Amino acid sequence: MSKYLFAVLLIAITAWYLSFSATRLDRLHHRVETSWANLDGLLQRRAAIAIEIARSEISDPASSLLLTFAAHQAREASIRDRSQAETGLTGALGILIETSTSVDGAIEQDLLRELKELTEKIKMAIAMHVDAVTRTQLVRRKWFIRLFRLAGTAPEPVTYEFEGDVL
Amino acid sequence: MPLSKKRIGIVCPYGWDTPGGVQSHVGDLAEYLIRQGHYVSVLAPAIDEESLPDYVTSAGRPISIPYNGAVARVLFGPIAFSRVRQWINNGSFDVLHLHEPAIPSISLLACWAAEGPMVGTFHAAAKRQKVTFAVAPILEPVIEKLTARIAVSEAARETLTEHLETDAIVVPNGIYARRYRDGVVDSRWSGNTLGFIGRFEEKRKGLEVLVAALPKIIAEYPDVHIFIAGPGDSQEVLKEIDSKLHSRFTFLGRISEEEKANFLASIALYIAPNTGGESFGIILAEALAGGASVIASDIPAFESLLGHGKYGTLFESENAVDLSSKVIELLGDENKRRSIAQEGKRYAQEFDWDVVAEKIYDVYEMAMVGGSTVTLSSENRAWNKFLGRQ
Lengths: 167, 390
Hints:
heterodimer; A: mainly alpha; de novo design (two linked rop proteins); 6 helices; rod-shaped; B: alpha/beta; Rossmann fold; seven-stranded parallel β-sheet; 15 helices
């Protein structure tokens, strides 16, 4: 009798633990989606500011051309080319900021300050996203999660290369 | 700043009645956010529920337990848990901010009970202990629910990566830098004077190290005098000190904020000989903001706060000989002393609440991107249904 009781208890605990793990994993996937949405939004804003900077007095025609091109690519890139496009934009903005040491106009200074603030935020967003992704990958790799296919059809989250470059 | 007013819930794990770094951080942050027009509710353990500020809700009486080498006034248990759930359920918050979610108190309970945008702040910096291996599997599924993590210093961040293998954004603790900016030099405290602020009776504040360094300093500067501000029984401490040195000490007791500003502007050197247990060193940030030239022990929190010696002078922790030689060197070199203090004062503006609270709010915004609000987690909802509760 007690043998059956024990078996029932064991099954109940296993079932609870599996459902708990599934919820946990679901939550992690949700976290990855949120952090990516956040990062994506900030990157779009960066591209928008880059275009504004390209049209302002800060940049000479040559760098304007380069910047506009890079910004458009970043905005329109498919998910596969996104990494390269964002790295390109980071590079273009980097060159511009290094070379434009003296900026007078109030609007221009505003733009540069906004870009600086945005870069700070992007750094935070990347840290959050990378953490969410690595945590999810770690949990997905557990043997019972793979055995019972608790991840379901959710695709394995990945980090992009540019995330290292922007920092 | 904020485009829309948010409902923010903050959980403080330690008893509100006892003074401490985390409590005052939570209080200052809540007041700042309220001034910005947000709705803020703080949940904290408290003994005296009558004298709490409007924005604080009591979660019950704190229990004193030894934790991590000190006595912590924390709260847990089924009654506390149901209060936490009730607070979350009634609050309909846009974001939850949990302080120290890795210690056994109501922040951990809240993290367990809630779902949605959550931000955790880690204050403690501790060495890796064996027990971590046992505790981590319990904490991991809870801590990973946090949308974003904040560490108050590089040291706290390292602790977090080592213990729980997760990264954090560093946002320092806040001070009201403006209050200390315009201190005037008071002749009572100027000259060859050393200042010390804090609960001097506590061993980890390191007053003993300063006392041990004193004879050597006196040999070079016979007129050196030490001013100590902060609560405590000065007679008890003097008993431990050689009676020949008694005339060197003046105990000021608790001082007002204005006096503190003048004090920091007047003294020649501010000494922080703490031997450990410090995660951020708020008093050092205040001393820098007040324009004092600082000499501090090289414990991790102080080292990172002082930019590895750029904004203040570091000496080897618990080494009285090293402390005395650093003091003698700086008392003899006023220009160096002043230039370090100038650097430090400028740097301390980064810790002003205007800067710090904005950064924290940025993190809130990032956590809130999904647009969902804080609710009880699905496990807890199911439980409530099962028990026939709402």
